[in-house]
Design goal:
InterPro entries: 6-PGluconate_DH-like_C_sf, NAD(P)-bd_dom_sf, PDH_C, PDH_N, Preph/Arog_dehydrog, Prephen_DH. By secondary structure, this protein is α/β, with parallel strands linked by helices. The chain contains twelve helices and eight strands. α4 packs parallel to α5.
Amino acid sequence: MNIVVQGLGEMGASLAVCLNAQPAHHVIGVDQDPNTLKLALAQGIVAETASQLAPVATQADVIILATPVTGIIQALQTLASLPLKSDVIITDTGSTKRDIMAVAATQLAHVAFIGGHAMAGTHLSGVTAANPQLYQQAPYFLIPNQKGQAALSTLQALLAPLQANFKTIDTTTHDHLMAMISDVPHIAAFALMNAAVKQLGDVADFGQYVAGGFKDTTRIAASDPKLWTDVLMSNQAAVLASTQQLMAELTAFNQALAAQDTDQLLRLIQSAQKARQHL
């Protein structure tokens, strides 16, 4: 099976290396960075490379788009103009789905498209972050278009080597869920890191004193800035609703502290502790 993976960052390269290890598959990696392509080929992450999607897409049985959301949308628009195989399956790894599914619905309704998003990944980036175990036991959401419904079992069988936990979901539910459990935690980490620098000075001045709490809470502040700007803007409405909820909770803590309301402060912390124990 000819499989094209566009975007050989952490997510795409980790997916490609799993599929390329299967004898029945020929994986072609597409990326604009020549060094990424050279490294991916040398390390056996892919069997073949290309710098552009269009020349290799027409002979693909499966196309996996693993770039940021804006890049996925551009790729879908490119694919819509190509003479693809009639039974091709197209999927993606974008972390928000509304805009992607909208483009697929209007321009690729004749093709089996299955939106995808795995709850995997770290703060690392690039082809050097490729990890064949990245997807193991991770929730992996799938959102098929009408024609994609019939291809769901085929795609899941193809991706079985990832050892992910597949779950179908609708676009709106997915994006609202991601806003609170993925997008807003990143905003909180970015904001806390920025607040610490503004209040305490350069990291060199206070970094030697931080312990597990600060390091754990700000770990994802080291994430790719361009990627997360793209993610947050593509899920704007849902993220704004979730940040409002977070700010309301922060206000409740501030009010309890300002009023020296020990009982209310205790209730807020206990409520969070009880919920966290169920994760």
